[in-house]
Amino acid sequence: xxxxxxxxxxxxxxxxxxxxxxxxxxxxxxxxxxxxxxxxxxxxxxxxxxxxxxxxxxxxxxxxxxxxxxxxxxxxxxxxxxxxxxxxxxxxxxxxxxxxxxxxxxxxxxxxxxxxxxxxxxxxxxxxxxxxxxxxxxxxxxxxxxxxxxxxxxxxxxxxxxxxxxxxxxxxxxxxxxxxxxxxxxxxxxxxxxxxxxxxxxxxxxxxxxxxxxxxxxxxxxxxxxxxxxxxxxxxxxxxxxxxxxxxxxxxxxxxxxxxxxxxxxxxxxxxxxxxxxxxxxxxxxxxxxxxxxxxxxxxxxxxxxxxxxxxxxxxxxxxxxxxxxxxxxxxxxxxxxxxxxxxxxxxxxxxxxxxxxxxxxxxxxxxxxxxxxxxxxxxxxxxxxxxxxxxxxxxxxxxxxxxxxxxxxxxxxxxxxxxxxxxxxxxxxxxxxxxxxxxxxxxxxxxxxxxxxxxxxxxxxxxxxxxxxxxxxxxxxxxxxxxxxxxxxxxxxxxxxxxxxxxxxxxxxxxxxxxxxxxxxxxxxxxxxxxxxxxxxxxxxxxxxxxxxxxxxxxxxxxxxxxx
Length: 565
Hints:
The protein is an alpha+beta fold. The chain has 17 helices and 21 strands. Strands 13, 14, 15, 16, 17, 18 and 19 form a 7-stranded mixed sheet that branches. α9 (328-336) runs antiparallel to α12 (385-399) and α16 (490-500) packs antiparallel against α17 (507-524).
């Protein structure tokens, strides 16, 4: 999310995403990051002037339960958030979305761009064991081990780390992975090809280290309860009441513990915005998301702020589970039929903006230029009822019917329900003969159904895992880990392969190829339908300072936060 995202005062704690994983009004996330030279920041710090008070405890909200605290298995924004505070990889992101030292003190890359060598600092796990290069090797092997079943392991390491794809396909041994411990403090990584954004990929949760002895001792219990979690990051999970909330406390074994001032962070699962507002007003919580109903009421409050991130909300069309959605004209009609401006102005009223393409605005700039990727491409999405009706009729004729029934999958929280109802109304009003059946489920269940392809049409979300157009556009490769909807295009596959292969070290050609791929994805195939780009209006206790949100990674970064006197 990049190029100079107007940092809008504040942070955002909602469910993605998608990232990496999709979902309507709750972000889920592929969080991500790369291309740090295009970094920016949309971060907004709550100021870091002043002194910390004696009571360094805060309470924030979460939109859903944590599905897992296992870095190899996490695919959602809630898991990213809290694993991101309890684990630390080679690097972290600062308030400007720039890479700063984590477990790595230094790194160097070979001239051909294929070999990276990381020197690790002296650091400890919460159980007192030293953090070593072997912990990274074990974690990365585990992420691509077919028996573990990681979704993001093959997705992020495959085609990047040498032999990762072959291992996940069962064609090579775990020991063949291009990650080795030269010694306890030296991690050597071999890549399949030069990857311009590799260093920033290591911030992503799948690249976190794991203490092999601890993981194997816990077995199936690992990361399922607070007592079965471990930490090498700023905080350690100490309590986990499933469905209700959890608590993390400052880790005294963290290498940079002197920087961490918060002693305790409580998270409460609150699905209804009105509940969160009431709890904030009574002083029981320190942060809560706002929806359209409350934005105008609190806009002048010192606690009010808006945080913008390059999280995209969009329709995912499963071409295998609904015959109508396999028709490009039907998909185009659905995209044209949604009035995105009214959605963000009236239903959301939180700073969100209509999407103009699949790669968000204020995310990346064209190489050696200040021109935003979206500006270079121009709008690929529009609201046009006349075109919607035209494509709809053409699609119905091809199907030999005058009516279509579609199930729309989405989250079951307050704002999401409002958005789903809006989609249903728009489509049934503008497309004669369509019936939209809403399927509202808990976030964790929606993520599961998305992963398994158990949906017809989904109100999905994606947030970047690194700062590069590839984090969005490689999702729809044939049989890709995050495709799960039956879309396949040899031409599209070839463009993405060319951008990441032949043009890997030629930035201008690479980005032009990405522009071409996005046009194919949306203008010609309408494989998905971008709807809006996220922002979050919220209340955040003014006495809490030093919290910020970055382009990728956890939505809130608490390492540098504190409660001011």
